[in-house]
Amino acid sequence: MGTDRTFGLVVTLTALAYIASATQIQTSFLTDPVGPRMFPMLIGCVAVICGVVVMVRPDPNPDWPAMRTFGSLLVAVVVLIAYAYSLKPLGFLFPTAITAAILSYQINPHAGRSIAAGIGLSAGLFLIFKFALGLGLVAFPKGLIG
Amino acid sequence: MELLSNLVMGFGIALSPFTLLLAVFGCFIGTIIGALPGLGPSNGVAILIPLTFSMGLDATSALVLMTAVYYGAMYGGRISSILLNIPGDEPALMTTLDGYPMAKAGRAGDALVISGVASFTGAFLATVGLMLLAPLLAGVAFLFGPAEYFALYLLAFATLGGMASNNQAKAAIASCIGLGIAMIGVDNNSGLPRLTGGNLHLFDGIDFLVAIVGLFAISEVFFFIESHGKNTSIGVKLGKVRVPWKDLWHTRWTQLRASLVGFVAGILPGAGASLGSFMAYMSEKSIAGEKGGFGTGVAKGVAAPEAGNNAAAGGALVPMLTLGVPGSGTTAVLLALLMTLNITPGPTLFTDQPEVVWGLIASLLIANVVLLLINVPMVRVFVHILSVPPWILLPGVTMISFVGIFSLSGSYFDLLLMVAFGALGYVLRKIDVPTVPIILGILLGGNMEDALRRAMVLSDGDWTYLFSSGISIGLWAVAVIGFVAPMFLRNVLKKPQRVTD
Question: What's the pTM value of the predicted model, to 2 decimals?
Fold first, then answer.
């Protein structure tokens, strides 16, 4: 119940902020009878109504994972963000091996297997992407290969 | 005669060695994706779309490959249903009811062959139905103006949302999230930026591929981390695989009836393959009665849902191709593919780009034969692939998703957005907010707003114009019924249908 009430509140507040942003949309002198503001504002209004309905008539709480699992999920998000930033400067092989190994470890906490999965996936996918699919991937950081 | 000449043209395109190779490859990969628990057709197609673009395929080739993956995944879903009692995807849920008891009784091979043949019957008849019905529906769609299109989009959101969640308000919120995202970027009419917050990356809007891959593929990884990849070991042995001719003959009418039921369910916008398999199973169960033994491991109980869900998959292509409104979650993803390929689905597709439509239809017919040929004799190969552990599989899926999106845009911002969508998808799915309406909203939001604004221009701002024709009034009425009816039906059905097909 608490989860849905929080969710309904978040939706309502976000939708109100969305409507407020929509009122700031600029209109040109060539605009049609509806203009660029009306549709976003309609969407926001529907979302506000639905948000309130969810708050008033909440479903039972879902099975949220334990705090430890939440920690794992947070680590996964951080690792994926770091992977997004590192793919360009560090090349494909190193970041992919590390990220795949960490994700593998989080799914099944076995260090040896995870390292093997990381290295195997990194090398295997690079070969497939680069040579079978012809993608222009860079293997290593540019500084490393000159 | 026109149908035959169109079909000949389609086979001329589809039978080129390269296209044929793509169809076989797509069927193989699709079956694997369908067989792996957790990776349904929508996830599979979502992950592979960016790679298709990276490979530089032309429109017809890309479409052939992805629909082969789609059909393949629909076939593959039954393998884990029968052997593990875990549906590979939502539409294969009903197959577990009789498939797993058959497998436990030492008839896993029989169940796999019967379901494979039933899948072929369903998908083949649906493709024939698509061939006959789609041009007719495309003709009717020429009567549609902006008011009718606006009502049609509303109908798609209402019915898809209605089937997608336990809670209509949550389904509507999902649609609003998608539509709200679609509004971000430069306004088509005025050319002015909207809701970008001044962020230059958002001026082009949010790419639906980024949202699709994030919501479907990345969120799945989070679910596996939560469950630590449990419940994926093979439960029963496959045993001897032979063709049970007697059972196939015995289920022939079941397969035909279930195909018809599934096809009709597939055509309804939003209903999808989950409903197709459910309705096919329930109707056959009621025909057979108590003596039928449904639920105890009977051949008809395996044939009906498989023919039903594969027929629905073909049926769902009808509204997508003729009206531009997807009939299921996976066809929503395929619609994204079409739009990215600069193909505008709708009635004009059949006249403007007949080679795409008929090439696709011919490829679907070929893909079905290929799937039958690889699914019956090669079932052992797919069963072995089921034993790939999730700690290798899911990191692999993540890496493929990243490379696919990165190779398309080369932008780390898109990758960050994809991770954000993954986290959002995880939270939303936990609280029973469906993700498919979000995708549909992002895909159709621009068109829906465009239809509304054109309707208002034509009527000089008169809102009653939206209800001014028989077609639009009919569509509004069906939309309201489609949104409200599941609230009552749910009490009858007990278990809600989550649209992930």
Answer: 0.81
Q: Is A83 in CB contact (< 8 Å) with chain B?
A: yes
Vertex B310 angle, CA B438 and B156, to 5°: 30
In chain A, the residue whose alpha carbon lies closest to the alpha carbon of B431 is: A62
Please count the other Cβ atoms lying within 10 Å of the Cβ belonging to residue B146: 20
Higher pLDDT, B312 or B326: B312
For the record, the structure tokens of B184 come out as: 């971000």
Question: Average pLDDT, stretch B320-331?
Answer: 78
- Residue window 47-66, chain B: list those with CB within 8 Å of chain A: 51, 54-56
Residue B500, pLDDT score = 43
Of A144, A145, A124, A127, residue with least CA distance to A135:
A127
Q: Residue A134 phi/psi, 5° resolution?
A: 70, 25
Strand partners, B185: B194
Phi, psi for A6 (deg, rounded to 5):
-65, -45
Q: Is A12 on the interface with B (CB under 8 A)?
A: no
* Listed residue (B296, B238, B259, B264) closest to B118, CA to CA: B259
Burial of B491 (0-12, 13-18, 19+ CB in 10 A): exposed
Which of A12, A21, A34, A55 to substitute to test the interface with B, most B CBs within 10 Å?
Answer: A34
The label of the residue with tokens 């029963």 reads B236
Min Cα separation A107/chain B (Å): 4
Complex prediction ipTM? 0.92
Determine the Cα–Cα distance for residues B402 and B286; give it in Å rounded to an integer: 47
> At residue B497, does pLDDT exceed 50?
no
Phi, psi dihedral angles at A130 (to 5 degrees): -75, -50
Q: What percent of chain A has pLDDT over 70?
A: 95
Q: Is A124 left (phi over 0), alpha (psi -120 to 50) or beta?
A: alpha
pLDDT for residue B350: 80
Contact between B195 and A40 using a beta-carbon 8 Å cutoff:
yes
Q: Which residues of B295-312 are buried (b: 16+ CB within 10 A; e: fewer)?
A: eebbbbbbbbbbbbbbbb
Residue A67 in tokens: 């705090």
pLDDT in tens, B293-323: 888 888 899 999 999 988 988 888 888 888 8
Query: B186-220 b/e with 16+ CB inside 10 Å = b?
Result: bbebbeebbbbeeeeebeebbbbbbbbbbbbbbbb
**Interchain contact, A77 vs B419, CB within 8 Å:** yes
Between B270 and A45, residue with greater pLDDT = A45
- pLDDT-based confidence at A11, cuts 50/70/90? very high
pLDDT at B499: 40
Q: Do B416 and A81 touch (CB under 8 A)?
A: yes
pLDDT at A109: 86
Q: Does A93 touch chain B (CB under 8 A)?
A: no
Q: Hey, what are B73's tokens?
A: 């995944």
Assess contact for B60 and B113: CB atoms under 8 A. Answer: no
> Which positions in chain A touch B161 (Cβ < 8 Å)?
none
